[in-house]
Design brief:
Porin, eight-stranded antiparallel beta barrel, alpha+beta, 311 residues
Length: 311
């Protein structure tokens, strides 16, 4: 009459196994939720979860209730499983400051940077360069000075959470220019637009010229290195390459003094260049031709390497 007891016991045993598995799933989900509530977003916390795995390998879990007797036909082993809860690290805007010194094609300069978000920095800085030389051009003794002075601001984007970045930028207060002065010695010949002019013996020719650029220019660069490392490191080696668009450079040239027509006697062939229509025409053609030749300088390069420190 008790033939149904073994079947009932097996049914109850399987029911307890199912109940234990369900309780374990609830505990796991609650542990994860509690970890989030306790540590908050922006942390990585390991959660240790202990489970009892039956030795018969059927994957079932049993409750560790002290009232229940262990199964004498199987040996249970405890395994500790550490499950890391990986959450995204937040970066507070303006929470850090970085500084670098660099050198490159536009001279020496510095940058300061501060984070805006995990993948974005705001960076500003300035560059300085000056170079002077002298040479002889078409009979004139020329002294020239090349000067780079400008400020810049950029938004640095690190698309891969690493050190590689893309940076739209704006150059402002651009004082990049070329300044030159020229002296044409008395009796020397200067050629403008294919025409020869002789510098007067009594009033020699003096010239001045300049090449200037826009004060504000957009640009773009790419680089490697983050002045504000997201790690514990304080030092970085930023490398940058790019360009900025300054538009058509503007060439200005002016002369004072007197020029002589080589086909006429000096007594009647010399006059002030400000009143010589032929000289002014040839000077205008010279300026127009060289302005056209300067169109290649509409894009100025950026190339620099430096060393940075995060405070």
């Amino acid at each position: 009459m008790f033939y149904w007891l073994p079947t009932g016991i097996e049914f109850m045993k399987s029911g307890f196994y199912s109940l234990g598995a369900g309780v374990l799933a609830v505990l796991l989900s609650s542990n994860y939720s509690i970890a989030q509530d306790q540590f908050g977003v922006g942390t990585v916390r390991p959660i240790a979860i202990s489970t009892i795995v039956s030795a018969d390998g059927d994957g079932s879990s049993s409750s560790r209730d002290g009232a229940s007797a262990p199964d004498p036909d199987s040996t249970a082993s405890a395994a500790s499983v550490t499950t890391p809860v990986v959450l995204t690290t937040r970066v507070r805007p303006f929470s850090k400051v970085g500084f670098d010194l660099h050198a490159g094609l536009t001279g020496v300069g510095f940058d300061t940077a501060t984070p805006l978000a995990r993948r974005f920095n705001l960076r500003t800085g300035a560059d300085f360069f000056s170079y002077g030389t002298s040479f002889q051009e078409e009979g004139a003794n020329v002294v020239a000075d090349l000067r780079f002075r400008s400020g810049h601001a950029s938004l640095d984007w690190f698309p891969f959470d690493g050190r590689f970045r893309l940076s739209p930028l704006l150059v402002f207060a651009n004082d990049t220019r070329v300044l030159a002065t020229a002296l044409v010695p008395s009796g020397s010949t200067v050629t403008l637009n294919g025409q020869d002019y002789i510098s007067s013996y009594t009033d020699p020719l003096h010239g001045s010229g300049s090449i200037t650029f826009r004060k504000v220019a957009p640009g773009f660069s790419l680089g490697f290195g983050n002045i504000i490392p997201r790690s514990k490191s304080h030092f970085s080696i930023p490398v940058e390459a790019g360009f900025y668009y300054v538009g058509q450079p503007r060439l200005k040239v002016a002369f004072t003094g007197s020029a002589c027509d080589p086909t006429q006697p000096a007594a009647i062939g010399c006059q002030s260049v400000s009143q010589d229509a032929g000289f002014q025409h040839d000077l205008g053609a010279f300026i127009a031709r060289n302005n056209n030749n300067l169109s290649y300088a509409s894009f100025l390069p950026i190339l620099s390497v430096g060393i940075g420190y995060k405070f």
